[in-house]
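Re: that backbone. Tokens:
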């Protein structure tokens, strides 16, 4: 907090330069840990670079404001922002550096010190980034990394009375536990939890354009994405063609080793996650759904699951209600605009939603009907650093990125100076 804003900005920019210079190395580490396709890992690092640059610029824009007290200039009253203090950053395994960057860049911009708890499966890229952070000029002791499991290292952090803030990305269940743990010292909490994001394809949609986007919305990173578009609803005039197109798309995806340049879909993170996903597939079949493609583990070494599409599902089925965090999509019919709130806003989550239609009037109305922190029209998953990212309802508390993302690491102080 003692480092001047101008210097903090220079250091954040230096971090971005070092991440860019080491992007191939960091991407490779990420693939070794997580299994994601190398092209995806490299692409996510461009986002990390962008994030450090966005927040580098924010350091010198931490403006306060003044109040007109209207008492013959007897008072000078103003408000300033100050760093919230020590921030604990608890990060999941599905996009380790991308998720960490969303927290570390604004925390350092704000002037906070941090303790990072990476996921046990994917700690290596965080440790390498921490070395680069030191090289960039961050004073020793400002960025600390504690590896270990959630119930041990993570719990110690979220219960610690000297930690002023926790920023967490991960499961709803652990998120609830963090809220409870924060009661000890009422530390500030930001939560980025999961979703069961709906995608609506209207009859008039451009089918050829929609298919690969809807497919990538669920199958990218093997579905291990918080905003994965995991339940698709299509109007009766387009549903059969959409299913046929998605099946063809899913079958065409190259599943394999993340280090092979041609791989589009890597393995799941762990044997446990694969068992969990296959258990959901079994429950979907047991409850009467039909697998039209995939539904099985792929052969070979690694925790692969084939891109899977279900039809014949109902709203009350587990695979339609619960976050699977795997490459499993359900496709169901829907009638029209008036069904959007009932279908789209069902359940505890509200992270993302997708709309495919050529009718701007329909899109504009539909956007306002959905309880979701991010709505994509004729696209899916696009994000910009300057706009807030986060969820309605139980998809989280607060937002990352944009001015909101910086505010999450700041306290406000109002000052009344009697002249
Ligand atoms: P998780 O348990 O929520 O893990 C996220 C992070 O929190 C990890 O660093 C984890 O540590 C840590 N953690 C776990 N228990 C903790 C505790 N009691 N106190 C403090 N930190 C704790 O997620 P997961 O078990 O890896 O995945 C389970 C499910 O969560 C997935 O299937 C998916 O549905 C959801 N998920 C969502 C996201 C998202 O982006 N919203 C990301 C990941 C998972 P360790 O893992 O090292 O033990
Ligand atoms: Mg866990």
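Recovered sequence:
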């Amino acid at each position: 907090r003692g480092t001047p804003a101008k210097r903090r900005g220079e250091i954040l920019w230096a971090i971005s330069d070092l991440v860019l210079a080491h992007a191939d190395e960091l991407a490779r580490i990420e693939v070794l840990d997580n299994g994601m396709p190398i092209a995806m890992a490299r692409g996510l690092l461009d986002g990390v670079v962008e994030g450090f640059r966005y927040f580098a610029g924010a350091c010198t824009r931490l403006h306060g404001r003044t109040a007109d007290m209207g008492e013959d200039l007897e008072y000078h009253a103003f408000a300033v922002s100050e760093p919230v203090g020590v921030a604990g950053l608890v990060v999941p395994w599905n996009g380790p550096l991308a998720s960490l960057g969303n927290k570390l860049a604004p925390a350092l911009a704000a002037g906070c010190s941090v303790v990072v708890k990476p996921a046990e499966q994917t700690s290596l890229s965080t440790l390498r980034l921490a070395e680069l952070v030191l090289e960039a000029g961050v004073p020793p002791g400002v960025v600390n990394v504690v590896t270990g499991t959630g119930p041990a290292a993570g719990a110690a952090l979220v219960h610690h009375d000297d930690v002023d803030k926790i920023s967490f990305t991960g499961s709803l269940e652990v998120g609830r536990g963090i809220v409870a743990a924060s009661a000890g010292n009422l530390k500030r909490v930001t939560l980025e939890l999961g979703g069961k994001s709906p995608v609506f394809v209207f009859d008039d949609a451009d089918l050829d354009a929609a298919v690969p986007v809807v497919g990538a919305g669920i199958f990218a990173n093997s579905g291990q994405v918080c905003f994965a578009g995991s339940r698709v609803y299509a109007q009766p005039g387009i549903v059969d063609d959409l299913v046929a197109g998605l099946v063809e798309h899913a079958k065409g995806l190259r599943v394999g080793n993340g280090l092979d340049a041609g791989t589009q879909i890597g393995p799941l993170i762990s044997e446990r996650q694969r068992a969990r996903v296959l258990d959901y597939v079994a429950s979907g079949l047991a409850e009467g759904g039909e697998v039209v493609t995939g539904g099985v583990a792929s052969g070979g070494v690694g925790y692969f699951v084939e891109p899977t599409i279900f039809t014949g599902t109902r709203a009350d089925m587990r695979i339609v209600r619960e976050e699977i965090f795997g490459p499993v999509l359900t496709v169901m019919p829907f009638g029209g605009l008036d069904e959007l709130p009932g279908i789209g806003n069902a359940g505890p989550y509200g992270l993302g939603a997708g709309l495919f239609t050529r009718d701007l009037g329909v899109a504009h109305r539909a956007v306002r009907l959905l309880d979701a922190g991010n709505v994509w029209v004729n696209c899916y998953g696009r994000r910009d650093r300057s706009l807030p990212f986060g969820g309605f309802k139980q998809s989280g508390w607060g937002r990352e990125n944009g001015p909101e993302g910086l505010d999450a690491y700041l306290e406000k102080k109002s000052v009344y100076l009697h002249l």
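The chain has two domains: 5-191+395-418, 198-377. The domain at 198-377 is CATH 3.40.309.10 (Aldehyde Dehydrogenase; Chain A, domain 2).
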